[in-house]
Amino acid sequence: MEKEENSKKDLKEPSSEEASEPNNKKEKNLDPEEKIKDLEDKLSRALAEMENQRRRYEKEKDDAFDYGGFAFARESLNLIDNLERSKQTLENDPKLKSSEALKKILEHLEIINKDTISIFKKNNIEPINSVNKKLDPNFHQTMMEIENDEKEPGTIIKEIQKGFMMKDRLLRPAMVAVSKKSTNSKKRSEKDEQNQDKSANK
Hints:
202 residues; alpha+beta; 61% helix; 15% strand
């Protein structure tokens, strides 16, 4: 039994001190120049890591300063949406149509709307100009297509909901209606193509 226990002790894993001995021996074997190079390498890596951390911190700080109110700004856009909806509801009310009361209410709503947009602009929140512009998926979201032969296909002809930018970031895309060719003009262009093919074959 004693022999077995002794053999088990011999098979034990080396202690952490024993395991680190080879590394210590290697370091002891390094001449002074190699030790200096090794230390310089470790120091340059530590400095590079510190610089990377400093840059990350600076970027996070700048982003927090520039876009800290991003979520609040997006929620605040509901104010403008609700003002627009209120105007449309009042304008479509048959009892109020052409009344003096309606004119005064709409004037007041327009003042509130302008003031709200002015406050947004002071905080670098700008509306996206969409109507008569070419559809850009980075800023616009197509909600419907309307047949219109006067405009090029893919031209925005109606703004359903206003989009906004906060500095160089998209706060909310504009919801828009874009033009498309009418079915009659498609048929005409197809006939023209067929006629051209026939004349070319002759």
